[in-house]
């Protein structure tokens, strides 16, 4: 199903289209030479609200499909600017618990198609981050097949956070750390005396990656909802009113402009 709310310039007059394009170019030029983030994470929120407003006669999956289209565009915007790492949050563990199976199943199909399309072309490196054991086997198999097909790609690194929860990630990290230390013969008392922050970080889903410099959330919500709980400690946050399917390149440029204008203090 095609998205029914495309780039806003398609429904306005020619003069307004020209003005919009000129504004976008001006924002892009303003970013030249600016300090851009190495890692951008996005909470693509508002897909269901978009569906209710724009496709009231269609099932809510229409909003998820529109959101997936915007995620594909977003990846190309990041690639164009040379941003090396992107994290896309597409499904939370809370969604899996809260939503009915009739809603989750179509969403999983959209996610499978999204990941498969990102894996095509031999350009991007796709990595799944999340508790995949909570997903149906057929979904896990499809996602892993797409992920494996990109393991030698050296382009933009895309983390796809599916079945992701920040608390779940920390639980999994601690469990894995305890198992490994026990296998080495380390006692709990010894571990309690020697455990360092960097040891825990090496068991996160995003180990060996820089933490996100910028986290963007759409739809007007101003909270992280457990997204990258550990990694977001020093991230810059940007909240946008647009529902995710309506998020435009100019909205992204504005977020990057705001980021470049901030003085990062890393908790100081």
The total count of strands amounts to: 6
- Which structural category fits the helices and strands? alpha/beta
* Strand composition percent: 5-15%
**Cα gyration radius (Å):** 20 Å
From the N-terminal CA to the C-terminal CA, the straight-line distance is: 48 Å
**Low-confidence parts, pLDDT < 50 over ≥5 residues?**
1-9
Number of DSSP helices? Answer: 10
Order of helix and strand elements from N to C terminus: HEHHEHHEHEHHHEEH
Tell me the major beta sheet.
Answer: 6 strands, parallel
Side by side, the strands of the main sheet go 3-4-2-1-5-6
Estimate the helix proportion, in percent.
40-55%
- What is the overall silhouette? globular
Q: What would the average pLDDT be, to the nearest integer?
A: 93
Structure explained in plain terms:
With 268 residues, this protein is α/β, with parallel strands linked by helices. It has 10 helices and 6 strands, in the order H-E-H-H-E-H-H-E-H-E-H-H-H-E-E-H. Strands 3-4-2-1-5-6 form a 6-stranded parallel sheet, sandwiched between helices. The longest helix has 21 residues, at 61-81.
List keywords for this structure.
single chain; 268 residues; alpha/beta; six-stranded parallel sheet; 47% helix; disordered N terminus
